Structures are given as structure tokens and as C-alpha cells.
């Protein structure tokens, strides 16, 4: 039973910290898709840090009011929701970029025509 609990705690720890570490590896692609300069990664990172501080300051109050189990469940749910919303935003930006292309152009740069 103790090993199972340790495995669950480990998975929770990984799932809550995963979005923070993905910014560095995902930003080069996000930067191109959203059409923003690389300096915007600093704003995103600052926002993540600011929200982490707010979370740390509010956690004692939340732990007194709610059980830790529910706080973890809601946190994981919000993380999943956030990742889903990023996917939706990515698709909308990609669709908007395709709608703005002149007719007859394609998204692929390696398309060869048969003469």
C-alpha cells in the first residue's frame, strides 16, 4: 500500500510541474505559430512565477478550508484544462493563418509539382 501511495504522489508531483518545464522546449514552435518575438517567453515565465507565488500564499488558507485530496484533484484538472485550451488556441491560430493565405498557396514548403 505504501508503494502505491508513493507512486501516486510521484505522478501528482510530475503532473503539476510538467507545464512549467514544457515552456522551454515548446516555446520555439509556439513563437513561430503565434507570430511573437522570443522575448514574450519572459512574460509567460513571469506569469507562471507570479501565479506560483500567489498559489503558495493562498495554500494554507485553502488547506484549512478544503481537504488536500480535493486541492490536488482540482489542480490536476485545471492543468489538463489548460493544456486543452492551449491546443484549441494553437488550432485557431493555425486556421486563421491558413484563411489569410492567398488562394492557390499551400502550407507545405516541400511540395513538388508534376510537369
Comma- or semicolon-separated keywords:
3 helices, elongated, mainly alpha, 115 residues, 79% helix
What does this protein look like?
With 115 residues, the chain is mainly alpha-helical. It has one domain. 79% of the residues lie in helices and 0% in strands. It contains 3 helices and no strands. Helix 1 packs antiparallel against helix 2 (40-65) and helix 1 runs parallel beside helix 3. The relative contact order is 0.08. The model has no long low-confidence stretch (mean pLDDT 80).
Quick description:
With about 120 residues, the protein is an all-alpha fold.
* Molecular shape: elongated
Please, how many helices?
Answer: 3
Mean pLDDT: 80
Distance between the termini: 68 Å
Largest sheet: none
The amount of beta strand, in percent, is under 5%
Order of helices and strands: HHH
Q: What structural category do the secondary elements indicate?
A: mainly alpha
The radius of gyration computed from the alpha-carbon positions, rounded to a whole number of angstroms, is: 20 Å
> Care to count the β-strands?
0
Number of domains: 1
Q: Which residues form runs of ≥5 with pLDDT under 50?
A: none
Query: Helix coverage percent of residues?
Result: over 70%
Amino acid at each position: 500500500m505504501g508503494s502505491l501511495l508513493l507512486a501516486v504522489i510521484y505522478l501528482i508531483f510530475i503532473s503539476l510541474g510538467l507545464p512549467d518545464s514544457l515552456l522551454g522546449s515548446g516555446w520555439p514552435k509556439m513563437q513561430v505559430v503565434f507570430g511573437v518575438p522570443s522575448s514574450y517567453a519572459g512574460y509567460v515565465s513571469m506569469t507562471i512565477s507570479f501565479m506560483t507565488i500567489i498559489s503558495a500564499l493562498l495554500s494554507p488558507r485553502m488547506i484549512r478550508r478544503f481537504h488536500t485530496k480535493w486541492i490536488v484533484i482540482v489542480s490536476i484538472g485545471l492543468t489538463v484544462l489548460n493544456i486543452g485550451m492551449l491546443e484549441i488556441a494553437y488550432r485557431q491560430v493555425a486556421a486563421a493563418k491558413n484563411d489569410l493565405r492567398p488562394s492557390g498557396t499551400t502550407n507545405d514548403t516541400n511540395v513538388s509539382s508534376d510537369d
